[in-house]
Design brief:
6-stranded antiparallel β-sheet, 1 helix, globular, 7-stranded antiparallel β-sheet, Jelly Rolls, 332 residues, 2 domains, single chain
Length: 332
């Protein structure tokens, strides 16, 4: 193993992460044509509806029963960063906010003191297949920010910096890459302070092309997730797909795609270095705080659910949009 590589691991579901990240999943579903009601035209027979995570015919329903996705569920104490490369996600939450985003958009949501939200995957196309490709990343909040007001913002794909290099492209979702700086994250995020060196890059490397990752800070943890391609040469070490690679952040890292295009996700950041107590969608610092959180959710439901259905979706013909808790509306 080269000096630049600290660890190599298999990408199981969910992907292994390092502080300050808590969780990362990659969804690739080749959904069939839509049925006109945002669900699949195909039969759902034989699926464990409500908990369908096994790939059958190239796709899953997840917790959805008629429309794929994740009906209303709570979060507290961390952030979700949802990158939708293909397809669409319908967002609804307990604050009354809503949105439809996709085809390269990113949603950055700070759960903070507590929020419920639904993430459904509407199959908008009835004349062609509805491919969905997305990442969801959980970024921890430090103790001082665990109870900030919930907040979400959209990073629309038209605004996200995409650096075009000879060897490929770098989509800069957070942080900076060779002085190309990402859009601002949510205001109370660990990523807001540049000293925390948080970066999220989605990189496509051309076949036989090379991308060079710049040095990061000495206390930064940097992980490369190789999820699509034939093989990847990292500083002389040949890596096969579906592997994560923790590398030395203080060194320049050379990535070369062998034979075919390669797609990778890079997560890096300075660790928060605080105790983590977590149970499902709740992430606190102590077991007592975790128990209090579960009691509070049972009593308050974090404000309740203002929508008619837990798997709320938006009108079929609706385009990309974001409606915020203050009533302001952005249409794309």
């Amino acid at each position: 193993m080269s000096d630049e590589i600290k660890n190599i691991f298999k990408l199981d579901f969910p992907w292994q992460t390092q502080d300050p990240f808590l969780f990362c999943v990659y969804h690739l579903d080749h959904y069939p044509k839509g049925n006109g009601a945002l669900g699949p035209i195909a039969s759902l027979a034989g699926r464990n509806l409500g908990n369908d995570f096994i790939v059958k015919d190239g796709w899953r329903m997840y917790h959805g029963t008629t429309i794929p996705g994740f009906p209303a569920h709570p979060h507290r104490g961390f952030e979700t960063i949802t990158i939708v490369n293909k397809g669409f996600c319908d967002h609804s939450d307990s604050l009354g906010a809503a949105g439809r985003f996709g085809e390269g958009d990113v949603q950055w949501m700070t759960a903070g003191s507590g929020v419920q939200h639904a993430e459904m995957f509407p199959l908008l196309h009835t004349e062609k297949e509805n491919t969905l490709e997305l990442f969801q990343i959980w970024l921890n909040l430090p103790k001082k920010s665990k109870f900030v007001e919930p907040h979400f913002k959209m990073l629309w794909h038209e605004d996200i910096p995409v650096l075009k290099l000879e060897g490929g492209t770098v989509k800069i979702i957070s942080g900076d890459f060779n002085n190309h700086i990402a859009l601002n994250p949510a205001p109370n995020s660990w990523a807001t302070d540049s000293e925390n060196d948080v970066a999220i890059w989605n990189i496509q490397i051309n076949a036989n092309g090379t991308i060079i990752l710049p040095k990061a800070n000495i206390d930064t943890i940097r992980t490369i997730y190789f999820y699509e391609g034939s093989s990847l040469d990292i500083s002389g070490e040949l890596i096969t797909p579906n592997h994560g690679i923790v590398v030395d952040s203080t060194k320049v890292i050379e990535l070369k795609a062998m034979n075919s295009d390669a797609n990778i996700l890079v997560l890096q950041g300075k660790p928060i270095n605080e105790p983590v107590a977590k149970y499902g969608p709740f992430v606190m610092n102590t077991e007592e705080e975790l128990e209090n959180t579960m009691d509070e959710f049972r009593l308050t439901q974090f404000g309740g659910w203002p929508w008619r259905y837990p798997d709320h979706t938006h009108e079929t013909k609706r385009g990309r949009f974001a409606k915020y808790p203050d009533g302001s509306l952005v249409e794309k």
